[in-house]
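Example pasted here:
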Amino acid sequence: MVNRRSLLKSAAICACVAPWQNSLAAAGSLMTPGPLKSEGQQSGRLIGVFAGAYLKNQPARADVIAREFSLVADGNDLKFSDRLRPTPTTYDFTTGDWTIHWAEQHGLLFRGHCLLWWNGLPKWFNGYVNAANAKQVLVDHINTVVKHYAGRMYSWDVVNEPIYHDGRPDGLRRKPWLDLLGPEYIDLAFHTAAAADPKARRLVNECYIEHNTPAEIGRRASLLELATRLKAANVPITGIGIQGHLRGNTPIDGPGMTVFLKKIQDLGLEIMITELDVDDVDVPAPLIDSTVARKYSEFIDLVGPFASSISFQNVADDPTLPKRPDGLSSRPDLFDSSYQAKPSYIAASQALAHLPKPSAVRQKNG
């Protein structure tokens, strides 16, 4: 369990003065914050994180996830990839089944990630799928996977990252599905998923729309255009997933994001934060912990009031991942590699605790 001593030690690392620090230091508040799911529960939100079948070999990580979160998203076991689709005619649900069973044993809801994505496709895909059979491949895949987990899945990322600067006026990514089927592949994916499991929420999940840069402002506009088109065409989309891959020294576009979130809400769509993390690669070493903590707090303060769930990309820092240019390990997560809470955990916990009831639409599925 996270204890008071470890939290105070972590808080001391951060040299910045921020609302979450002042709150922690205030009289009467020197106690263990969280667990995060309890902070979310106060305002009616689910708090999630990515996981996978590797938890069977990582009991400490599994314990932290079970304690802190109310929802898990499977990071790799359910993607349209070699793991799930070893051949064009076979499926391997072994790892996905283990993960959803673990979640159910520990009382966590489960989010499916993801049905269609441009990346990570099986080795056989390019040599097998063509314009003549692509529709059948898409429908068969979504039908089989969604029906396998029907009734057990809280939500699906039906189409992941469909926006890209490929020179199209609508901003849609060309390869592979659009080149094979046209933009209506998105409509087909949602109709197929809804028929296979009407109760699961169904999202378009998109990255890099948060920052105040021309590329992200343009991607945000294209995502709003896509969502508007799908709703007008009565496509059974129920929400938008905002991944939230933040960069330490790149400003978040607060005004632009607020306008975007309100327009998504006006369409009757639910909003979820789906993959929240902070890239510290451009942050000076002495400021890493304070900057990462500040970015979590800033983003939760901005997007959290609109979101029905907030999911983090990872639980703990991994020193085996590639180093920063200065040779240091990145520290983007809520816990360190020993599962001790960091300033980022405290910042996230405090931000979650102060969120109002979500203003995002809770749409009935079907």
Summary: The first strand starts at residue 46 and ends at 51.
